[in-house]
Amino acid sequence: MAITVSLVALFGLVLFFLLRSKSLGAGSAFVAAGFGFFLASTGAARPINQLSQSLIEAASNL
């Protein structure tokens, strides 16, 4: 659970800085956030979480 919260914070910061630098419009940021929200409620959420955990474990073993 701690991994999920930190990834949400990381992606939130990335979206914030993209909005601030005007590389991403407000509509696109809303669509990206909505896509992530709805993706989390599908069957794809578990494999995505497992993939992120595996990548984080692999990075920590380097």
Give short descriptive properties of this protein.
62 residues; mainly alpha; 81% helix; flat
Low-confidence runs: none
Mean pLDDT: 78
- Rg for CA atoms: 13 Å
What is the number of beta strands?
A: 0
The biggest beta sheet reads: none
From the spread of the alpha carbons, the general shape counts as flat
Task: Give the structure's gist in a few sentences.
By secondary structure, this protein is an all-alpha fold.
Protein architecture, described:
The protein has 62 residues and is mainly α. The protein has a domain of 40 residues. The protein is built from three helices and no strands. The radius of gyration is 13 Å and the shape is flat. The two termini are 22 Å apart. The model has no long low-confidence stretch (mean pLDDT 78).
